[in-house]
Design brief:
By secondary structure, the protein is of the alpha+beta class. The chain folds into 4 domains: 2-64, no CATH class; 89-105 and 283-434, Beta Barrel (Elongation Factor Tu (Ef-tu), domain 3); 109-143 and 249-280, RNA polymerase II/Efflux pump adaptor protein, barrel-sandwich hybrid domain (OB fold (Dihydrolipoamide Acetyltransferase, E2P), Beta Barrel); 145-247, Helix Hairpins (Orthogonal Bundle), CATH 1.10.287.620. It contains 5 helices and 21 strands. The strands form 5 sheets. A 6-stranded antiparallel beta barrel has the order 3-11-14-13-12-15. A 4-stranded antiparallel beta sheet has the order 4-10-9-6, with no helix packed on it. A hairpin with a 3-residue loop joins strand 17 and strand 18 (389-402). Helix 1 (2-13) packs antiparallel against helix 2 (18-32) and helix 2 (18-32) runs antiparallel to helix 3 (42-64).
């Protein structure tokens, strides 16, 4: 009966426990059977008792550690900020309206270099295409051996003519002495004739002698003038030859960039052969093609932004310099010349684009770094929603970036805050930590 009392006590103590009921059932079955052939005696009884003890122990443990029947509450931890970002407000600023055109880069002033003296062979070429030269710099040398011989001859002519002048000056002195003597004789014979000491015929003879002496002096003076003229002519020839000798050094007529170098050693220079072409001061222009219907929108001195598709580094600020008066009658296209600042990124003949400012008006703008170009050609920004959530917003841009800002024609309104630094690493709905106040600009 001790076994039966133990089972009832355990049943009350572990009521509701699945393990306890199982153990109690086993106990009841064991106690309800009649002992037969020593079922509970010997080692079998020991085994059964040990098994019951283990079962009771396991049941008690499960009961003690069984969770209470309370509703399960799942708590979600707050989403952590993915990264720190800076934001800037959407503002209203002056925005340029532009006309997009294309054209060819050309030299603003292309200066041809022609030989100043002809018939001479090119001896040396001192520059190459692309070299930068200064005004007066020697860029080629012509053979001057012929001129050197002519100069020596001219100097000899000068010396010879100077000797003739000396000879004729001596003849003039002699003629003057003869004239003086003849004049003295004439005066003496005049006095004798007045006194009746000589005949009239003798007086006339002395007068003729004096006249002949005067003519000899005049001729001698004329000969000196002629010889002096020969000297001056020889000197002029020498000066001309010396000038030509200086012209055998071909010099740059202006500072700039060597655009073409057609001269070759051994060529004979002539007055129509272009030896070089120089872009004065390296200045370039864009010869933009503008449809005649849009020409009224373009004004002289209007700013223009010039870009080159093959090189994103090219973003030059130019100005409209001139509008050619003629319009192509077939294409109805006019040429607008846009001055370009000095640059080594463009070359004459390249194809480039220009955005010519046609008007300025008020528009909605954001920092250019906030706008994210998309693969499909659209643009997107991240707008700060609330205090720390960002929303992806598709926008349309317009105008030319000015001062680091770009116009937004749709998708935003003044007062919105957009992500600037860190925008490229976000996705729609991300939580962020703002490290810059929305009213600050970047």
């Amino acid at each position: 009966m001790a076994h039966k009392a133990f089972s009832e006590t355990e049943k009350e103590e572990f009521d509701g426990s699945e393990s306890a009921l199982t153990v109690d059932s086993v106990a009841r079955k064991g106690l309800g059977r009649k002992p037969s052939q020593g079922l509970l005696s010997g080692w079998k009884g020991v085994v059964l008792g040990t098994g019951l003890g283990i079962a009771i122990a396991l049941g008690g443990t499960r009961f003690l550690f069984r969770p209470t029947a309370t509703p399960t509450v799942t708590q979600q931890s707050p989403q952590q900020p993915v990264m720190s970002v800076t934001v800037a407000p959407v503002q209203t600023n002056s925005v340029a309206r532009t006309l997009n055109v294309t054209g060819t880069v050309a030299a603003r002033d292309l200066i041809p270099v022609l030989p100043q003296t002809t018939g001479l062979q090119i001896k040396q070429i001192l520059v190459e295409e692309g070299d930068v030269v200064k005004l007066g710099q020697v860029i080629a040398v012509l053979d001057n051996s012929v001129l050197q011989a002519q100069i020596n001859e001219a100097r000899a002519d000068i010396e010879s003519n100077q000797a003739v002048v000396g000879q004729r000056q001596a003849a003039l002195a002699q003629a003057r002495a003869t004239l003086a003597e003849a004049q003295r004789n004439l005066q003496r014979y005049q006095e004798l004739a007045n006194a009746g000491a000589i005949s009239r015929q003798e007086l006339d003879t002395r007068a003729t002698t004096a006249a002949t002496a005067r003519e000899a002096v005049r001729v001698a003076q004329a000969n000196i003038s002629s010889a002096s003229a020969d000297v001056r002519s020889s000197r002029a020839s020498l000066a001309q030859l010396q000038t030509q000798l200086g012209q055998t050094l071909v010099r740059a007529p202006a500072s700039g960039l060597i655009a073409e170098a057609t001269a070759k050693v051994g060529d004979v220079a002539n007055g129509t052969q272009r030896l070089f072409s120089i872009i004065e001061n390296g200045a370039l222009e864009l010869q933009a093609q503008v449809p005649a219907t849009q020409l009224p929108q373009v004004n002289i001195n209007a700013p223009a932004v010039v870009t080159y598709d093959a090189d994103p580094r090219v973003r030059l600020q130019g100005r409209v310099r001139d509008i050619l008066p003629l319009v192509n009658p077939e294409s109805r296209i006019a040429t607008v010349r846009i001055n370009l600042p000095p640059t080594s990124l463009l070359r004459s003949g390249m194809f480039a684009r220009a955005a010519i400012t046609t008007a300025t008006m008020s528009g909605v703008t954001v920092p250019a770094k906030a706008v994210l170009p998309q693969p499909d050609g659209s643009a997107m920004v991240f707008v700060l929603s609330g205090a720390d959530i960002v929303k992806a917003q598709t926008v349309q841009t317009g105008g030319v970036p000015n001062g680091g800002r770009v116009e937004i024609t749709s998708g935003l309104k003044p007062g919105d805050s957009v992500v600037v630094a860190g925008a490229g690493y976000l996705k729609d709905g991300d939580r962020v930590r703002v490290v810059q106040q929305p009213n600050e600009t970047s």
